[in-house]
Amino acid sequence: MRNDRELTTDEWGRVMREAAGLGVLQIGFSGGEPLVRRDLAQLVQSARKAKLYTNLITSGVGLNEDRARELRDAGLDSVQLSFQSDHADLADEIAGAHAHQRKLDAAAIVRAAGISLSLNFVIHRRNIDRLPQIIELSETLSAGRVELANVQFYGWAFLNRAALLPTREQVERAREVAAAAKARLAGKIDIFYVLPDYYEAWPKPCLNGW
User: Fold this and answer.
1) What is the predicted pLDDT for the residue at 210?
2) Which residues are registered as beta bridge partners of 29?
């Protein structure tokens, strides 16, 4: 059932055409979880007709081969999958659900469909020391882009910052690991490491300017 406060398929199509007319070049289908919209392929198709680059930002849960092919055929350019860790037990504990294997399956489905794959790992005290293994997983999954995004402390994260905020030493070690991987994998995987605001002197542009 559609929430009456959500835009309809046609309304979203109009918004995308107007955005393209104003000079917008790309659109990210995010949420919540965008896969719950039954008209997602139609929205992607409308974006393609408006000549927008399309990126689906998803947990991957609920993505199957038929849906991936449908989105590809509609014109989807890229999928960004979110992961909590490289290790199933820790990832499922953080997520509060048995989702890690389903995310791995989704990554394989995306690659088999011929869609560009990006990965996003939300980094915090519980998983930051596993950055080498996280990068290894990204290589195994043949990702073209990896965002290592330290938690930004707003809302729920701010209230739980004592449990989530890494030490400065952890952050610096992780930055060294990310920099070495970025150099080693140049031309194969684009790696972006985003510092937590607590360890920046000034507010930063999104993804360090990406």
Assistant:
1) 43
2) 56
Task: Report whether 83 contacts 103 (CB < 8 A).
Answer: yes
Cross-strand pairs, 27: 54
Q: What is the mean pLDDT of each run of 10 residues along the chain (210 residues)?
A: 77 97 96 93 98 96 96 98 95 92 97 97 94 97 94 83 90 94 96 78 56
Q: Quote the CA–CA distance of 210 and 195 in Å, as a whole number.
A: 14
Strands 145-150 and 190-194, by their bridges, are parallel
In 3D space, the residue among 126, 125, 60 whose CA is nearest the CA of residue 93 turns out to be: 126
Rounded Cα distance between 70 and 44, Å, is 10
Confidence at residue 209, expressed as pLDDT on a 0 to 100 scale: 46
- Residue 26 makes CB contacts below 8 A (sequence gap 6+) with 52, 53, 54, 55
Distance CA 158, CA 61 (A): 27
